[in-house]
């Protein structure tokens, strides 16, 4: 039994000695460098796109809010005209205020008009 215990301790000592030889300052520095590169890659691929998505959603919300205000202004300025008459002016104003492209401004204005129409229809039914 004593012989078995000695051989187990000898194997354990050999294993720790081998690990101690591998874990030198240079190898730890290399592992740290590899981990930092991986961390940078992970941040670039996962975290930054998530933050950009969050920022883009906030900006889209602001654009829709501005589109609501602009379409309300033109609806009140031209109460008897159909919304298609003043939509181009509203789109130009949204572009002027926000700096977005024409396509995005048109979609925001049409979405605002559609929301207003839904609210008006709900009020008329209620």
Write the layout of secondary structure elements.
Blueprint: H1 2-22, H2 25-77, H3 83-98, H4 102-125
Written overview of the protein:
With 126 residues, this protein is mainly alpha-helical. It has one domain (2-125). The chain is built from 4 helices and no strands. Helix 2 (25-77) runs antiparallel to helix 3, helix 2 (25-77) crosses helix 4 (102-125) and helix 3 (83-98) packs across helix 4 (102-125). The model has no long low-confidence stretch (mean pLDDT 80).
Overall pLDDT confidence: 80
SSE succession: HHHH
- Count helical runs: 4
Q: Determine the fraction of residues in helical runs and give it as a percent range.
A: over 70%
**What count of structural domains?**
1
User: Which residues form runs of ≥5 with pLDDT under 50?
Assistant: none
- Beta percentage is under 5%
Q: Choose one word for the global shape.
A: rod-shaped
Total strand segments: 0
Whole-Å distance between the termini? Answer: 91 Å
Briefly note the structural class of the backbone.
mainly alpha
Largest sheet: none
Gyration radius (Cα, Å) is: 33 Å
